[in-house]
Amino acid sequence: METAEQSATGPVFSVKGLWKVFGPKAEKVPGNKEYQGLSASELRARTGCTAAVRDVSFDVHKGEVFVVMGLSGSGKSTLVRCLTRLIEPTSGSLVMDGEDVRAMDGNRLRELRRHRAAMVFQHFGLLPHRSVLDNIAYGLEIQGVGKLERRARAAQMVEKVGLDGLGERRPRQLSGGQQQRVGLARALAVDPEVLLFDEPFSALDPLIRRDMQEEVIRLHREEGRTMVFITHDLSEALRLGDRIALMRDGEIVQLGTPEEIVAHPADDYVRDFVRDVPREQVISVRRAMRPAVGGEAASGPVLAPGALVSEAIETVVREGGPARVMDGDELLGVVGVEQLLAVVAGLDEEAPAPDGPSRAGSPRARTGGGRE
């Protein structure tokens, strides 16, 4: 759901009909009607080419956490590298802040990578002979920032990502989670407009991974920085994303908020993907409510329309009756045991989506507890 602010400023990234094809005469694949409808294996057999990204379109709005997820080989990592032309797209439109990225010359492209979009990779890529501070300051050094200024800014980033007291250590003296924090701090130090994450936490232990997810959530809450996050982990995508693009064989099969994807999967592939998701922890009461009857409108506990079904279950059980869903002074509906159990059991999936923005409709909607 696009906010008024997003509409006024326009998207940070606007991607239209983007293709990345590997193989002989790759440029002949996009737009060729002969190859339309072919599966990935059929296309390889017919042309010898692999379409890693296949006719993909989406916008990323300012302040949004946009998650691209899919299984290995779905094209998600290729896609994020195309955004800054670390991998050269085969065809399509790629625009950042109204500027054609594909038309950029070498100087403009270097400026984009050094100042406007910073990448955080799965492999930390830290320089082993440099201290934490100097690793964090490396991007600033590439920009030509003086030593005193870049170390001062690096020291601020050390504090921001929770590495206080570790600035003079070498990477080998850090845990995996601490090393990943250095990588995150290095990206933040150049003050980019967009942070691009390519499966940054997949090699970390589960508890450390959760800590790093919390760190990303905290930083986004404090700074509101635009983020594009690549992952193969559905729970991570649901936890971090304002919107999720779910990919398969180079194509986006569904794009929506976490709630939309879980509540209304686009096809059997998506339905299978989200089958084990605890629906009550993703779906809001806005999708579960019914009209009030009798005296229900006048009394009973109150829930905000963005409250999760899990919260509503606790409230309804505790109070022993339906809860009112209120938007300010306006009664939107009520939820009782029957409606809440229908969500948990997945019996609400065929119900039409409600009017108005959903819980995760914008990054602004997620501020103030939407991710907790």
TrEMBL record:
Pfam families: ABC_tran (PF00005). Residues 348-372 are annotated as: Disordered. GO terms for molecular function: ATP binding. Residues 38-274 form the ABC transporter domain. Gene3D superfamilies: P-loop containing nucleotide triphosphate hydrolases. Keywords: ATP-binding, Nucleotide-binding, Transport. It comes from the Bacteria. PROSITE patterns: ABC_TRANSPORTER_1, ABC_TRANSPORTER_2. InterPro entries: AAA+_ATPase (IPR003593), ABC_osmolyte_uptake_ATP-bind (IPR051921), ABC_transporter-like_ATP-bd (IPR003439), ABC_transporter-like_CS (IPR017871), Gly-betaine_transp_ATP-bd (IPR005892), P-loop_NTPase (IPR027417). Belongs to the ABC transporter superfamily. This is Glycine betaine/L-proline ABC transporter ATP-binding protein. It comes from Streptomyces gossypii.
